[in-house]
Write a structure and sequence with these properties.
The protein is 3% helix and 37% strand. The chain is mainly β. Strands 2-27-26-25-24-28-29-30-3 form a nine-stranded mixed beta sheet, with no helix packed on it. A six-stranded antiparallel beta sheet has the order 1-7-6-5-4-31, with no helix packed on it. A four-stranded antiparallel beta sheet has the order 8-9-10-11, with no helix packed on it. The radius of gyration is 21 Å and the shape is globular. The protein starts with 5 loop residues before the first strand and ends in a 9-residue tail after the last strand. Residues 8-71 have low confidence and may be disordered.
Length: 502
């Protein structure tokens, strides 16, 4: 492993703001540093010098029970929200040029990944969260999860070695490293880096599958290349890492199950505008049901994980009309539906404008029909935020979680990059609707920039959003339709490891 971990203990947040130049610079840095699978998937991403015109906001529907953004698209950095959302706190990033990524929770702590490492926040008082520690350990995109005293990070950018002092190195060099990093976080102020596990094509994301004696990590990665010694095609599956709870330094890859024996979606030119399936982007597991849903570039899959080292595909679907890149998945509480997201434009494109329309860069709602191995994914409808964004704002469906309201109602909160945070209901699979929102105006009014909410999750009565450029936001949702969720208390939450809330 080698190297040291640098921690910064912070008592007081440094209030800093960032413009589009800094945000764009951060994106270009991560793109240049990326290895087999870049931070922004294909298709999409910002190009140097790209500077589209202003957006046009016409005819946007209002969220049910909410209020419109004054004057249509908000002004630069202006905060607007529906009446049932209250912003409670924001902790700006220490370095706003570094991209913030995913979130995990445990007890009174939130763990926030970023492309330079991760930050631990004390959220015991959601109105006044505090930075506890910042750990410097560069490597995009530092997708994050926690279990007990262990924290796991995904590295999907080609590095010179597995240390926290590594530098970017071409994936064409055999000595380059990508994969999983494991930290001991018993001492929140001084996390210790204890183990690394190299995985084929790196680790864009990972999903924790809990067990009695062992933890399993489903490692999602993609985009192989004949020129990459550690990431050659075909790459039609996922890496399974086994982590013994009592001996985490013995963690190792124990399987590489092939999920697409036929190669998956061929992409273009057979299916123009659709990504070729060369692995998975993200996987959500529902351990209580031995189920998982995979968002795998050109395919969405439902699979059985009753044998964690041998996941088995039950059903597979494609949408070669409106989905460009299957990005993530969320089950409803009854495990009768899956919401898949399409990351059209790779997270760097302005796809929430009028020109793109309501069915692309959206969520796809699928009912799960049948039983056992006869279960099928049945498409019902799309959901997209009903507020047009400017052509200078990167915006597309991204990471979200259930709001655990119970009672047979299906409500989730979701990040939309510069489209902000949306709370929406899909109890009626055919008629989803937004019920609350929070967003900032564009980072820039004259050129496309990278920013907005990467992940927006509901945890113990509050919404936490990790904004790429602005840092951690805490929001309170007050609505009769969601008030029941405030009574649900969790001792941990890795969103891609969906719990039984009730």
């Amino acid at each position: 492993m080698g190297g040291t971990v640098t921690s910064r203990h912070t008592r007081r947040a440094h209030h800093r703001r960032v413009g589009v130049a800094a945000a764009a610079a951060g994106l270009l840095t991560t793109l240049l540093a990326a290895g087999p699978a870049a931070a922004t998937p294909d298709p999409g991403g910002l190009s140097p010098g790209l500077s589209p015109g202003h957006g046009n906001h016409q005819g946007a529907a209002l969220p049910d029970g909410g209020q419109p953004a004054p004057g249509g698209i908000p002004g630069q950095d202006e905060i607007v929200h529906s009446a049932n959302i209250k912003p409670l706190a924001n902790i700006p990033s220490t370095d706003p040029t570094v991209v913030n990524s995913d979130l995990a929770f445990q007890g009174r702590y939130a763990y926030a990944g970023n492309y330079n490492g991760f930050t631990i926040y004390d959220i015991a008082d959601p109105k006044a969260p505090k930075k506890v520690t910042e750990v410097l350990c560069p490597g995009g995109q530092n997708d994050i999860s926690v279990d007990g005293d262990l924290l796991f990070l995904s590295t999907d950018s080609s590095r010179s070695d597995d240390s926290c002092n590594s530098v970017s190195q071409p994936a064409t060099e055999k000595s380059s490293w990508e994969g999983i990093k494991i930290f001991d976080i018993k001492d929140k102020r001084n996390p210790r880096y204890i183990k690394s596990v190299e995985t084929a094509c790196g680790s864009h994301t990972h999903t924790l599958v809990p067990g009695r004696k062992d933890i399993y990590l489903y490692v999602a990665s993609y985009s192989p290349n004949e020129a990459f010694p550690d990431c050659k095609p075909p790459h039609d599956g996922i890496s399974v890492v086994k982590v013994p709870k009592k001996a985490p330094t013995k963690a190792a890859v124990v399987a590489f199950p092939v999920l697409f024996p036929d190669g998956g979606n061929p992409g273009a030119p057979t299916n123009p505008g659709v990504s070729k399936t060369t692995g998975c982007h993200d996987i959500t597991v529902l351990p209580s049901k031995d189920l998982a849903a995979g968002a795998c570039m050109g395919d969405g899959i439902l699979f059985d994980i009753s044998r964690p080292e041998q996941p088995r595909v039950i059903d597979r679907v494609q949408d070669n009309v409106n989905f460009a890149f299957w990005h993530s998945a969320t089950f409803n509480e009854r495990a009768s539906k899956v919401v898949f997201t399409d990351e059209l434009g790779g997270g760097g494109g302005a796809t929430c404008n009028e020109a793109t329309g309501p069915d692309r860069g959206a969520d796809g709602i699928y009912d799960i029909t049948g039983r056992g191995d006869q279960r099928k994914l049945s498409f019902r409808s799309y959901f997209k935020i009903p507020r047009h964004q400017a052509d200078t704002e990167n915006c597309v469906a991204h990471n979200g979680s259930l709001v655990p309201v119970g009672g047979g109602r299906d409500i989730m909160v979701q990040a939309w990059y510069q489209g902000g945070v949306s709370v929406w209901e899909f109890t009626d699979s055919d008629r989803p609707r937004e019920i609350a929102y929070f967003e900032r105006g564009p980072l820039s009014t004259d050129r496309l920039g990278l920013g907005g909410s990467w992940s927006a999750y509901y945890y113990n009565g509050h919404i936490y959003s990790n904004d790429i450029a602005k840092g951690l936001d805490v929001l309170r949702l007050d609505d009769r339709r969601t008030d029941s969720a405030k009574r649900v208390r969790m001792d941990r939450l890795n969103v891609q490891t969906q719990p039984e809330y009730h």
